[in-house]
Amino acid sequence: MAENFNDTWLKNYYQHFYPVKSVLKWLSYGKKPSEYLQYREFAFILKDDVHYRYLTFSEAGQFRKELERVIPHKVDLGAVYNHPPKDRLKYRDFKAEERELVFDIDLTDYDEIRKCCSGANVCQSCWRWMTIAVKVLDKLLRNHFGFQKILWVFSGRRGIHCWVADESARKLDNTGRGAVADYLSLIAGTKKVEVDPQFTHPMMEDAYLEIMNCGEIDNLVIEQKWFDSSENWLPILESCKDQDMREALNDGFEKLTTPELRWKLLKRRFDEQTRETLDERDRPDIPPSAKIFLNHLFYNTLIPD
């Protein structure tokens, strides 16, 4: 929590600006709030990270009154349970039945390949990572899973949260949520996933095309200085499994004088390979720089219990 937190200002915010009615309407999903929201847990996070859990609010006046009384520094949304959370101790079968599917993309997850900043430091170039990640994840969630009710929210620090609120997503159990995460995640920890050179997964193809066509990657590559020197581009070329191509690209990079020309050479070479492999009814390989990005895209995937 921030130091010197002003509770007077916060109380004024809850009294006059916090969109209580809109929040409850959103979380009701077309159902009567008085019936549906009695099963939804709210949690207030107080000073010194004290958690005030298992709260329920089914109408706006009650919710606002409690916000003004407690003045939480943070409001967390919990699951929808089979019994009212406030009565949880009365039931042995008390369990969560619904919760939005949430993904957390944080800039610190890119520290291994961010050349401009690291840790808490953030610049304009850093946000290109977020822009690309949002566009790619949004496309995959819609096209590969059929989800439509997707809300993107700035996390307040160095990242973005994605809330998937389709009923089918909300009712996924932990196994289903894990399956979605496994499908989307291309690394676990710092271990890179090896891609079969004879087959590129359709998800990776779609992600690659979105990265290359999103309008951000050209500027990002130059700003991150990936092709400024051999010290920077050699680690990228290592992800190319074709030794002949790797050597040809390195030789070409050495002869060129600007990172822009090296990046154009890389794209042109893989465009040629794409046409060749499509003629052979095979799947094209993905350029090394895109593989580097893909390997970090969904590193921090939050699947709530």
Automatic annotation (TrEMBL):
SUPFAM superfamilies on file: Prim-pol domain
Pfam families, sorted: DNA_primase_S (PF01896)
Gene Ontology CC entries for this record: alpha DNA polymerase:primase complex
A Gene Ontology BP annotation from the UniProt entry: DNA replication, synthesis of primer
Molecular-function GO term, any one: DNA-directed RNA polymerase activity
EC number in record: 2.7.7.-
Keywords: DNA replication, DNA-directed RNA polymerase, Metal-binding, Nucleotidyltransferase, Primosome, Transcription, Transferase
Family that this chain belongs to: Belongs to the eukaryotic-type primase small subunit family.
Entry-linked NCBIfam families: primase_sml
Protein name listed in UniProt: DNA primase
